[in-house]
Amino acid sequence: MASGDNPVTAQAVHAAHELANISDKGPLAGFKQFISRGSMVDMAVGVVMGSAVTAVVNSIVKNLLSPLIAMIFGKPDLSGLLTISNGKATISFGAILGDLLNFLLVAAAIYFCIILPMNKLRNLAHAASSAKDDKPATPSADEQTVQLLQSILNQMKADQWQGRPGQAGPQA
């Protein structure tokens, strides 16, 4: 009986194979696969870029827009504008407007500084890729020679079996 026919040996080989591959099946392997996906990396880059853009926009609001608002309305920011208070609770529409303005500025900055250029680059890469794929591949000189010789050989075989005059016919 060969060693491959022995069920105990087959089980031992299977168990050894499973132990060798255990690092590929553990919880860390799934985490590694999750992290290494392109979308996860894109998301991480987006978070970092978003926080950087937010810092720039907050600086613009603090150092440019807030002083303009102070000059126009006589208050340092929008939070003091359009407030309703009854002593126990205060509703501040100005604060909501300020946060909405901040959000719109961040969204516009992210769109025009990150999303729009990335889409343009992606479209250029796709156009270059599709132009490259549309171009028919011409066979090399060696491939053309092989194709020509194959065609000649096929024609010679066809002539031989058809018994054309001046050609050797099939061997009987």
UniProtKB/TrEMBL annotation:
GO terms for cellular component: plasma membrane. It comes from the Bacteria. Keywords: Cell membrane, Ion channel, Ion transport, Membrane, Transmembrane, Transmembrane helix, Transport. It is found in: Cell membrane; Membrane. GO terms for molecular function: mechanosensitive monoatomic ion channel activity. The keyword Ion transport applies. InterPro entries: MS_channel, MSC/AndL, MscL_channel. SUPFAM superfamilies: Gated mechanosensitive channel. The chain crosses the membrane at residues 91-116. It is a multi-pass membrane protein. Homopentamer. Belongs to the MscL family. Channel that opens in response to stretch forces in the membrane lipid bilayer. May participate in the regulation of osmotic pressure changes within the cell. This is Large-conductance mechanosensitive channel.
